Amino acid sequence: MSSEDAEASAAVQRQWDVIVIGTGSGGKVAAQEFARRGRSVLAVEAHRFGGECPYVACVPAKSMLAAARVGLSWPDAVRQRDDITDNRDDAVGRKSLDHSGVTTLRGRATLAGPSEVEVADVVHTAPVIVVATGSTPKIPPLPGLDGLDYWTSDVALSVHDQPESLVILGGGAVGCELAQAFALLGTTVHLVEIADHLLPAEASWAGEALAARLREDGIKIYLGQEPVRAGRSDGGCMVELADGTAVRAERVLVAGGREPCLEGLGLDDVTVDARCRVVGPDGTPVGGLYAVGDVTGVSTYTHSANYQAKIAAADASGQGRDANYSAVPRVVYTDPAVFAVGESTADGPHTRTAHIALDDVERALILRHACPPGRNARYKAASS
Prior knowledge:
alpha/beta; six-stranded mixed beta sheet; 11 helices; 20 strands; 23% strand; globular; NAD(P)H dehydrogenase (quinone) activity; flavin adenine dinucleotide binding; FAD/NAD-bd_sf; FAD/NAD-binding_dom
């Protein structure tokens, strides 16, 4: 079914087995999983079908990192980024849903009542509704920040003009990936993290090891420093830290985490149980209402969203099982990559972590002997 036919079908049909609001990682998998089970599914998307990952997040970030590793120029890196993201055109993402038997509808959805979703003044009904509206960048209440034309990650991964210098607020996965990509492509990068080590959700030694590599890439890192004020300075931007240090750059990039996207949905917050059912203040499931992905606040990783989508589909089909996040992987795609599985050290005092040297792992040995001299030789130390 073409996108135009899907729009026409959605305009006529108003009763469905399942309605999915949002088509990012979790929403797309949920819609396809229900369709695979023979349900009639309407997927509503307010922005891009496929969510942010293919267009302004995961995919372009990895593309820019890959370009930087092999020494491409900024213009070539941008061309590669735009080509691999189809210039942020979501036609392919929408077709993949259509071909899965999912009816797609572009528009902003509001929960109008029990089992009711309103889109463009039309009410659609379904006994099962899945909220998968994702998240938005969390903007810190930093005095003076509103007066700057600051970037968020989606802007940083869409621009064509390279900044001469950049100060990044936040040393989590997104901040570290973008810091390395921009630095290796020639931008002077300052990375500010409030915690005492990068990747604060992970074990401290992982953040410390990554910080050592980022410093080798020329990145200036400020740890244990809270920004207290922002403003303009010499035609650019300035961020003042708690110890009085003034960090100046052409641009400011906010990468301090994300928060659930609930705008216009009709929900004040979303809390889910172990089966991804939305629950009320007393912990009782709200009949037929599920939530998956970033909007749940459980995890901001794609693998978690996909896993939750399958948990929700199984429960709504009478095959319920509790989610267990102890084996969900996560990766920071820097060089070297930081990867983990299971709970993080931030999850509680009973978490145990372990690490081994990778010097003699086969992939490290192959890269050590295969990579040519020059920038790619940085892989020789990637196993340390």
